[in-house]
Amino acid sequence: MANNSPREHWGSGIGFILAATGSAVGLGNIWKFPYITGENGGGAFVLIYLVCIAVIGIPVMLCEMSLGRHTQKNPIGAFGSISPESSKLSHFFGLCMLLTGMGLLLFHNYGMAVLMFVLGALVFAYSWRVVGFCGVFAGFVILSFYSVVAGWTIAYFGKALSGGLDFVDKVAAEQSFSSLVANPYYSIGCHLGFMFLCVVIVMGGVKKGIERWSKILMSLLFLLLFILILRGLSLPGATQGVAFMLSPDFSAISTNSVLIALGHAFFTLSLGMGAIITYGSYVSKDQNLFLSTLSIVALDTLVAILAGLAIFPAVFAFNMEPSAGPGLVFNTVPLVMTQMPGGIFWAGLFFLLLIIAALTSGISLLEVVVAAAMDELKIKRTPAVIGVGCIIGLLGCLCAVSVSDWTRVEWLHSGLTGLFGVDDASFFDFMDNIASNWLLPLGGISISIFVGWVWGTRKAVEEIRHGSHNFADVHLIALLAGLKDDPSHNSDYHVLTLAALWGIFIRFISPVAVMIAFLYNIGWI
Ligand code: PFF
User: Fold this and answer.
1) Range of the structural domain that residue 197 is part of
2) Structural domain includes residue 122
3) Best residue among 31, 146, 152, 363 to mutate for probing ligand 1, ranked by most atoms within 8 Å of CB
4) Which of 248, 274, 371, 392 could form a disulfide with 75 if both were Cys (CB 3.0 to 4.6 A apart)?
């Protein structure tokens, strides 16, 4: 069973870009972005989100990509192969974790305190490898609830096909969604169906599975989105929806909105957990990492904005609330769409779009864990995919059951209530909280500090230079002025190059910004 085969690689540069864009474009873009935009002032929120993408998203994605390609390893192996035997910085972080654990004990937050003690001890023992381990663990956690939501989109697609989305009013739409969620067998069936699709694709390998399917699915996704936008924009009153997305209302913005935008930037770009490290480890040396990062980020942002443009015009044309919360997609959208001529067809297309978006993200989450199992446990792809798929499938069942009724899994409920004080939050909310508020921000900070201070920006830039021609060393001002190829602007002076700008961001700006968001998220500031 030992896995001694050479590392697989993407068949083409565009294949890699589409696969990574597929990872980034997911439920976060089409389900979450429109409703958080609706709740936080429309255009003003979009503007803040764009700043977060530029300040945090681009620099951290470049860190993950260069780390992956340089080491050609999964997140655990990537940190392990670069990390020094003993790192003062990691000891310092280990100590901080132990102290945080003690602080949490004083606040009677026993579960988080135990987690901090374990993490702190692991950091002392395994140094930076722990960051990779946490990334893989986040993959487990996120996929187990992500696939439950993805399962609901499959259920809604089925309902659209069978004419079951023909709601007369808002109450009927809400009832339909609550009865789906309350039926654990149906939720579990759809979740397992989604996991099965992910398992089949990932089992095909990097080139023949993930890359091939990403190319097909992403082309279909762009086509569907385009059709849905044209449909949305052709409705009467649609201009109001477009204006809502594009004209900023700064009075609806609060500190919280800024932090929501920052957290979402992480989730939507699949950062902070090693997905991009894993995909980057299959990239060849002649790929331009700078341009790849910019393309992935631009496509992801474009899809989020297009999804808003597909949804809000229809919402306004039918006098619905743009700030309808997480139910926007499952309650409002079917209601709006089925009121339009040919509505069931449009609703079907919309849920198909959601399934495709979720699938390309689901396979990347699964691949993070599979790649780690293959490399670290030295097993072949097929048993790794089946084993990991089964474990995540089981965890997802717990999520689905806990959403329908906590008391069905009372042992888990009382255990988590005792340790973490989760009270009425479902296991689903608990997993989401652990991943989104703890693992991803901590992972993001650790990755940028590791690349900026431990591996070092100099070595990272050497990696980025492969395949990037002189992109990294171009004088930024010369680039903006269109003088990129003018030799006098690219001399040996210490000028502000793209590489220098990136270094400043990952050493100082990104970690500090994420740290503030993290502390705010957990309620410490
Ligand atoms: N980026 C995905 C989305 O926006 O839905 C979610 C995600 C996928 C997060 C893969 C993390 C990841 F590794």
Assistant:
1) 13-83+128-245+253-521
2) no
3) 146
4) 274
The conformation of residue 6, written as its DSSP 8-state character, comes to P
Average pLDDT over residues 342-349: 85
Output the six-digit token pair for 253.
């913005």
Residue 237 CA to ligand 1 centre (angstroms): 33
Q: Which of 142, 303, 368 to mutate to test the pocket of ligand 1 (most atoms within 8 A of CB)?
A: 142
Give me ligand 1 centre to Cα 266, in Å.
9
What would the two tokens of residue 508 be? 């100082």
Ligand 1 centroid – CA 333 distance (Å): 22
Q: Could you tell me which residues are beta bridge partners of residue 475?
A: 497
Residue 323's Cβ-count burial label (10 Å; 0-12, 13-18, 19+) is middle
Q: Is 282 exposed, middle or buried (0-12, 13-18, 19+ CB in 10 A)?
A: buried
Strand, helix or coil at 497? Answer: strand
Q: In whole angstroms, give the CA distance from residue 131 to residue 144.
A: 20
Among 31, 301, 365, residue to substitute to test ligand 1 (most atoms within 8 Å of Cβ): 365
pLDDT in tens, 94-133: 999 899 889 888 888 788 888 889 999 999 999 999 999 9
- State whether the beta carbon of 268 lies less than 6 angstroms from ligand 1: yes
What is the Å distance from ligand 1's center to 220 Cα?
19
Distances (CA, A) of 302 to 34, 268, 296: 13, 12, 10
Ligand 1: residue whose CA is nearest its atom 9: 270
360 C-beta closer than 6 A to ligand 1: no
Query: How far apart are alpha carbons 1 and 373 in whole angstroms?
Result: 12
Determine the distance separating the centroid of ligand 1 and the alpha carbon of 214, expressed in angstroms.
14
Q: What is the 3-state secondary structure (H, E, C) of 416-453?
A: HHHHHCCCCCCHHHHHHHHHHHHHHHHHHHHHHHHHHH
Count of domains forming the chain = 1
User: CB of 149 within 8 A of CB of 31?
Assistant: yes
Tell me the CA end-to-end span of the chain in Å, nearest whole number: 50
Alpha-carbon gap, residue 494 to 484, rounded angstroms: 16
Is the beta carbon of 29 within 6 A of some atom in ligand 1?
A: yes
> Sorting pLDDT into bands at 50, 70 and 90, what band is 1?
very low
Catalogue the E-assigned strands of 258-319.
none
User: Residue 375 is encoded by which pair of tokens?
Assistant: 């490399």
Instruction: Decide if 157 is inside a domain.
Output: yes
Task: Residue 178: give its domain's CATH number.
Answer: 1.20.1740
Instruction: Determine the average pLDDT of the residues in 382-398.
Output: 96
How many angstroms is it from 261 CA to the middle of ligand 1? 15
Residues 6+ apart with CB under 8 A from 88: none
pTM given for the model: 0.91
97 occurs within a structural domain: no
* 4 in any annotated domain: no
For ligand 1, atom 11, the nearest C-alpha belongs to: 270
3-state class (DSSP) for residue 42: strand
Q: Report whether 35 contacts 330 (CB < 8 A).
A: no
- Distance (angstroms) between ligand 1 centre and the Cα of 107 equals 32
